[in-house]
Amino acid sequence: REKNERKMFGFSFVRLMDDEVGTTHRDGPHELCIYKCDDRARLANPMEYLTMPFLTRDAVDCIYSLPYQRSPKEFIEIETLLCSTKLTQNVDLLSLLRWRSAPEGIGETLSRVTRVDGAETVKFLQDVLDALFAMFSTDDGNSTVHSGHVFQALVSIFSLLEDSKFEHFKPVMDAYITGHFAAALVYKGLISCVKHLANVCPQTEKPEPIVRCFKSLEYIFKFIIQSRLLFARATGGQNEDSFRDDINGLFDSFTKLLGECLDNIQTSQVTLLENIQGGCDQLIRALDPAKVAGHLCEMLNCVTVGTREVARAKLKAMRNAVTSSLFDDD
């Protein structure tokens, strides 16, 4: 146009959400279409243009059938980067957060959760944990067909916190446990899952899930104890004997595992010995410290020292015990 005639040449736009899958638009560079328009007033109604393709790659076949004519030789390039604790670009994570809308696909959703990038998971830590605990048990506390897979997903999240990249999220996890976690009936299922892994350890050919579980004992017990305390508070301390029996059974399984002398379980034994104190430190919030100490002594006395690694792990467990808050009680 003439230099003194300042009119609008055209416009571009970008949709922030992918409506088909519900995620935000992908990070990175994007070539946007330029549509001809010399009347800014026409843009007052966004619905007139929001139905049009906004990326050049999507607009090839529909240049002449749109409310606005596209300028085929021009485009504008932008680069986007999402920063959000409520919106995600990960389809697998989104399917977990929206699991109630498609409960028939829970199994597949859980199998994909462990593939989600850790940085994306910790951003949505509270929402992810809420979803997983809702799947873990029924309203009356019974296990579901997905409880085992949910437990694996929980352990994978706890394991993330041991990574130096994510260890600063531990206060976030602790704040969730004490301030937001409300699943008062999951403690029984969590105990059952840990006990099952300890029992099957001598027969399994893949110890990795068991090792990950034992490495995460501190956080598993944090949730067990918080759940138990919530239940006791709500019911006036009901099922105290049942809870003690469940813990006794769990430590019986630990003791039996440590008494075995098999090559294929030594990594699991070492990991259990190195991390059991984190669980005991939580147990004394709900059980008599002398009882917890008794369980620990019984475990250590039953260790079959077959290798130097197991012997070293036993000594480490003993050192952890005598330097813990448990030993502050005369």
TrEMBL record:
The keyword Nuclease does not apply. It holds the Pfam family DOCK-C2. One of its GO terms (molecular function) is guanyl-nucleotide exchange factor activity. InterPro entries: ARM-type_fold, C2_DOCK-type_domain, C2_domain_sf, DOCK, TPR_DOCK. GO terms for biological process: small GTPase-mediated signal transduction. Belongs to the DOCK family. This is C2 DOCK-type domain-containing protein. It comes from Meganyctiphanes norvegica.
